Amino acid sequence: MDTNATTHGTAAVLQTALLDLQLVPLAADTTNSTTDKTSSQDLGGLYRVSRKGFLGENPENRFFVGGGLSVATNAAEYSQSNQTDDFTVTPGTAAKVQATKDLDTFDVVYKGSTGLSANATVGHSLFFDFGQAMFGFIPRIEAGYEASNPTGVTATSWTKVIKRDVDDDGAHTRAVDTIETTVRTYTNAGAINTVNGNVTSGLDTATEITASIVVPVALTVEPGDWPFSFYLGAQPRVDMTHTTTKTSSGVFSESVTTAAGDNSTSSVVTTQAETSVESTSQEVTWNLSVDQNAGVEVRFGDTVTLLVDIAGTFGSGVWDFNNLVVQAVVALP
Description:
mainly beta, 7-stranded antiparallel beta barrel
């Protein structure tokens, strides 16, 4: 028996086996890209018109009207692509031998949202001069409207495409390769998971109507030649807010299309959406508050003036002290 021949044959088998092992995919190149954009725009304007008052004789009496309008829009865009290229390395070289090529893509289509807010004010100032004292008040009525989508944009569809290179030729054109496309179409989906397409929150909308009556009042007194004067001020305010909130659960219908190759016959599985559950709540709140301040101004000759001012707010049966100001003004020669 030729021992050398046997040894040589065994070594050749081992070498071939080692080469075969080295041809198993050793690494992978991955390419990932993501586009995630959000945008918002605000457009608004204010106006105010003032003219001589209809009431009272004081030339300072004025009638005024004003308001504002604001429109806010939101938009979003999302797409993601993940590609994995497995390869082997030829023994003794750095050359890559392409193996499988897998590609996953995710695309979300969003519907933009629009928020609207408007407000209006109408009022009339009235001033009365009593010589050593002056009294005035400026009653006004305010109204507002705001409709918004707290969620911002809403998802309308999500598409996932998975391409598998089954025959390891680095392409997705052979009949043996598989392409699976999943499309979900949403109803009332406020937010979704961009990877698995699940709904993470429903859609909320809110409408708010406000109405207010505000009556700022002030009295100033300067007693003749006395070295001091004082003033009192208050602003009673009544606010009414009516809020309507609508909450909807997010649901989706799903279509899964599986094809073997780009041009082969596809199979489609469709799942219908569940019914979106909607609920509406309304709330009316009232609030009464009075801002107050009082002050005194003391003059020491023609060069020094001392000013003391105290301010606070009364609301919900509690008076809150806001601030105290003590200020001395010295006129330099």
